[in-house]
Design goal:
The protein has 308 residues and is of the alpha/beta class. The chain has a single domain, classed as Alpha/Beta hydrolase fold, catalytic domain (Rossmann fold), CATH 3.40.50. The protein has helices spanning 7-10, 69-75, 101-116, 127-138, 163-169, 176-183, 189-204, 218-228, 230-233, 265-272, 296-304; strands spanning 34-38, 41-48, 53-57, 80-84, 93-94, 120-125, 143-149, 250-255, 276-281.
Amino acid sequence: MVAIVASGLALSAGPAAADDTATPATSVLSAPVQFAEIEGATLGYRVAGSGIPLVLIPGTSNTMAEWDPRFLDELATSRRVIVFDNRGAGTSTGDVSELTIRLMARDTAQFIDQVAGGPADVLGWSMGGYIAQELAIRNPGRVRRLVLASTDCGGPSTTGPTPRALRVLTDPQASTAQRMSILFLKDRQGAAVAWSAAIGAAFTANGFQPQDSFTIAPEVAKAQNKAAGREWLGAQGGTCSRLHRIGSPTLVAGGRDDVVVPIVNLKALSAGIKKSTAVTYRNAGHAFLFQPGLRFARTVGAFLDRKA
């Protein structure tokens, strides 16, 4: 996944699209940043809402400040929504010299123990989905239900980004427009603008936010790209051969026109996870979660509320 970082503040083209959903008493991204001490790192996080905890894991070069607040707040009407920064990113600290997906999964397991206080529902987007898979395989007792969005199971059989998407993903000088063009379809750029505007509004809602809310240091970006790139897609990477070990009911979802994680990869996930439900969205790409018209938050809520 690519970061939008300060672009959320720069693309201020009006308010986000109106929605008819309720909002929690406190917006998730307006909640104060708290900190959890885990092995080798301090993780910054925010929490709002009540009910069963739902932990969201961000993608490559993203911080918790870049989740769409409209998406989070709808989830928080029925869940205790918890967002956090991976080690070294945003408000979190920690050594990334030996960063791997498994290390970030271990971080997340310890984080869930401390902050959720028991098993949690888990949603991972892009690289966050890689982390969520490892978490569910290695720490099944921490995951009640699992949502995997715009992600894959890695290994050499996985179809990687398109050449153009890969160029943008690996170019630290890529423009906001270039980044948004691989997250949203050409005729869905209005959703990109609305997402950015919503983040900007949330960032300034309380008059102050930590200055490192959007910070991804070059060495952290490099470490994440390595862990989620050649290591995850390499011969010894990924979870494809271990997906059968995921026992949690799982929702696998993606946009049919995703150029970052092509939708063909969804088949391997849904086939390998026994208790899986697959959902695909037309006219949607890597950031399909943040197209309000697709109402993905409602799909997630309904899935998490299932009795079986």
